[in-house]
Amino acid sequence: MLYAPRPKSAKISEYFLENGSLILRSEAQTLRLTPVSDKILRISALPDGVPSDDIPPEILPYSNSCEFKLSRDGKSISFSSGELKAVISEETGSIEYFGPSGLYLREAKRESRLFDGYKAKRRFGGSTKKVMTADGEKTVVVSGEEEIIGDFYHTWLRLCFSTDEAIYGLGQHEEGFSDLRGKTVYSYHANRKIAIPLLVSTKGWGILMSTESPIIYNDNEYGSYIYSETVKQLDFYFLAGGSPDGVIALYRQLTGKAGLLPKWAFGYMQSRERYESFSELLDIAREFRSRKIGVDCLIQDWCSWPQGEWGQKSFDPVPYPDPDKNIDELHSLGVKLILSIWPNPAPSTGDYAELDKNGELLITKDFYNSLDPCARKTYWNQLERGLYRYGVDGWWCDNSEPFSPEWNLMIRKPECKAYDDFILAGCDRLPPDRLLAYPFHHAQAVYEGQRNVTDQKRVVNLTRCAYSGSQRYSCILWSGDICASWDTLKKQVAAGTMFSASGLPYWTVDIGGFFVKNSVSWYWKGDYDSPESDKAYWELYLRWYQWAAFLPIFRAHGTDLKREPWVFQDSGDTRFYDAMLKANRLRYSLIPYIYSAAAMAYFEDGSIIKPLGFDYPDDPVARSLGGQYMFGKSLMVCPVTEPMYSHEAEPGCDRTVKVYLPAGGWYHFFTGAYYEGGGWIDVSAPLDSIPVFVKEGSVLPIAKESCRVLPKEIITYRVYPGRDGCFSLYEDSADGYGYERGEYSITNIVWDDKLKTLTASDSRKLSYIIVG
């Protein structure tokens, strides 16, 4: 007969209060509950000893001085603070979480928290090789002896979700998940993948894992759990937001406010791989101005450094001479400059020599060590003396994961294998429990460095990777080097809203996909080998462009062909070009709306884009719909993600799309037609626009036509009647950090639906149109 060893008992043997926390002991583990606020509860567990109260750098310091109540009924122990109550089973140690409206979430009834101790290892003393990748030269550890670098745990937090809730978050997923129910997510960093350890439920609760380790989220027949790869203890925060928006606000309370970007960052950003001189940049800027196409920023991709000096933070004096003079000339055209910078300078560079001399490189000596405060200071000093002093306006922190081992391969491995490879490569470079921390500290280096230099210029950091708290360093995330296909476009719509639901408000894409053509590498698999003339690609690019006009950041970028709007026309066909100009003008007309939404992301800890389930959590269709989303508080955007006007269109295509309207009244943005919500409708999808709907009761500020973002616009308001409404118009100096000191105004523009009047809280005169 087989012997079945008995697991350690999770029955609570004693409990007591200590330093504002509730400590519960069992044979299996010690559990600690610490109220952070009346809506946030920290839960820590350890099988041997008392959990540490240390917090990672991503979490802001807090004092656990909240009032709480403790009671016992013989079967359970109740621990409550404000609106949040945790009920712990004395028999199993499992926790149920309650709010004012009832149950939020249950942990599994048995073995809700599991630990598997192990010794983490790192390879050393073996051989390495240099490989040239799309992200520059990388060091790959080929072999080596293994050394033990510490004792850690694999942990499981086992949960029981409700059947009528959707789960969002965990960062950016290229699979196009619109709801994490029934999914498995390997959460680690990679090109096209961003790990953020936040779950948000439409029931109004959230869980923020307090870890810098990769995790695996699972919700299927094998159970619902969060597995942490390498931790010293199981540690997380339960967020009782009451709504998904409330959860995001609590996440920001723990990890920091989202810094407000300068107003120009919400205009159009033009990029491609790549501009090759200041002369070319200036020619492009002048062409935009002569054509009267809106643009506020040009982005210089890699290789602006001296030839043969990958990643050196200085300009090549031949194609990029007199940087102060040339950047000033760009500025005179009303165009800002964002510059590509990298964390992996080549060994031949002066930047590398300085970092190496100071001992500020990672163990593999291929990246600077962003986890080291001294290395961060050195990195910024190099930026300031080589680039920033010439007037560079923003940073493109490329390759900030900073390692993506799967991009060294020709054939893509299954996700579970890529996860393992990331951990192996990470442990060669970083502490095993801090593999996800690099991009957070990389952004910190840039933000804190620039803030120490000036208060007059807001930080702009376009970066490929982030982590919890990165929003406080003014990060704009983009979805990586994606491919050009209709399937990718469709998945990207969901990827953006899922990322925003992870607590970071600024996100964008490479319009049209970065890789357009098809190559032998798994990641370079676009569908179009002749994009310069293929109208099928032009249609895809146009639909991508139209969608991106309704993203927090409006930016074009990619390789295989140029990306300026005038590329997409020929002598006999200007339909695509004309439609792009219409989308561009629309973006600029909405700048007051977008900038105000961005301000509320700071002042109210809100989101600019979000899944429909945030606003309609009780609607089962809206909860799991990935092809539509809210843009600000009033606009529902429905991107067109299938071909209709080229040879790729299905025979007999009627050029309509199905749109779901949640309950309430809706107006078509372009036609003004009114619809009663609560079901699906077929909507025409002309080439020059995508379906966008406005909630009844909305007040939209529409700016006078302009080809650049202005400090202050001439505004006409569009009123969408049917109920009372209000728009909060945010205005400030457009740049600098005066807003942190109260140097701004918020004017409430109020619509009284009964009286049919529109008034401003500061009594200014208003120009407005009533739609319908």
UniProtKB/TrEMBL annotation:
Top-rank lineage group of the source organism: Bacteria
UniProt GO molecular function: carbohydrate binding; hydrolase activity, hydrolyzing O-glycosyl compounds
Coiled coil: none
InterPro entries (alphabetical): DUF5110 (IPR033403), Gal_mutarotase_sf_dom (IPR011013), GH (IPR017853), Glyco_hydro_31_C (IPR048395), Glyco_hydro_31_N_dom (IPR025887), Glyco_hydro_31_TIM (IPR000322), Glyco_hydro_b (IPR013780), Glycosyl_Hydrolase_31 (IPR051816)
Pfam families per the UniProt record, alphabetical: DUF5110, Gal_mutarotas_2, Glyco_hydro_31_2nd, Glyco_hydro_31_3rd
Taxonomic source organism: Candidatus Faeciplasma avium
DUF5110 domain span: 715-762
All residue ranges annotated as the Glycoside hydrolase family 31 N-terminal domain in the record: 30-210
Glycoside hydrolase family 31 TIM barrel domain ranges (all copies): 260-597
UniProt similarity note: Belongs to the glycosyl hydrolase 31 family.
Entry keyword annotation includes Hydrolase: yes
Protein name: DUF5110 domain-containing protein
KW DNA-binding (keyword) present: no
Biological processes, Gene Ontology terms: carbohydrate metabolic process
Glycosyl hydrolase family 31 C-terminal domain mapped to chain residues: 607-700
SUPFAM superfamilies, per the entry: (Trans)glycosidases, Galactose mutarotase-like, Glycosyl hydrolase domain
UniProt keywords, alphabetically: Glycosidase, Hydrolase
